[in-house]
Amino acid sequence: xxxxxxxxxxxxxxxxxxxxxxxxxxxxxxxxxxxxxxxxxxxxxxxxxxxxxxxxxxxxxxxxxxxxxxxxxxxxxxxxxxxxxxxxxxxxxxxxxxxxxxxxxxxxxxxxxxxxxxxxxxxxxxxxxxxxxxxxxxxxxxxxxxxxxxxxxxxxxxxxxxxxxxxxxxxxxxxxxxxxxxxxxxxxxxxxxxx
Length: 195
Ligand SMILES: [Zn+2]
Known about the structure:
Layout: H1 5-30, E1 34-39, H2 42-47, H3 49-53, E2 62-66, H4 68-77, H5 83-106, H6 116-130, H7 134-154, H8 156-169, E3 171-173, H9 174-194
Antiparallel strand pairs: 1-2, 1-3
Helix pairs in contact: 1-5, 1-8, 5-6, 5-7, 6-7, 8-9
Bound molecules: zinc ion.
C-alpha cells in the first residue's frame, strides 16, 4: 500500500504528541528514573493533583518523571561535585531533550515551541550549575545534546511504537509503563526482521 506524502505528514502530525512523550518515557526508564504517569488526556492533566502541584496542569501532554529527590540537593548546592552527579545531570538532560528530539525525528511540521519547556528546564539547570563559565557551559551542553540525539537515533523504532501506544491509550500509569516499553521493543524488533 502506498500513501501520499500529505497522508504521511498528517499521520505523523496526529502521532506527534505521543511520540514526543515516548521519547521522555523511554529515556527516563532506560536511565532508571521512575515515571508516575504519562498522559495526553487534557481532562486527566487538568485535574491530577501531581500535575497541579508541579504546575503542569494546563492540559498539554506531560510525562511525570520523578527526579527532584536526585536533582534538588545538587541544585541547592549550586555545583556538581562528583562523576556520579554529572551522570545524573547528563541523564536528566537527555531525558528532557529526548521528547522534542523524538518529535523532530518524525514530525516534519515540528515547531520549536513544542520543546520550549523541555529545553528551558534542562538548560536552566545546567546553567545554574555552571554559571558564570559560558565556555564550559556551551561545551557541556553541546556534548549532552549530542548524547540525546544519539539516544533518540538508537531507539527510534521503539520510540515510534511506544508513541503509538501512548497515542492510543491516552494515559499510562507507573505499573503499565514498563510493559508498554517491552511491547514497543518487540514491535521494533519484528520490524527490523521484516526489513
Ligand atoms: Zn516534552
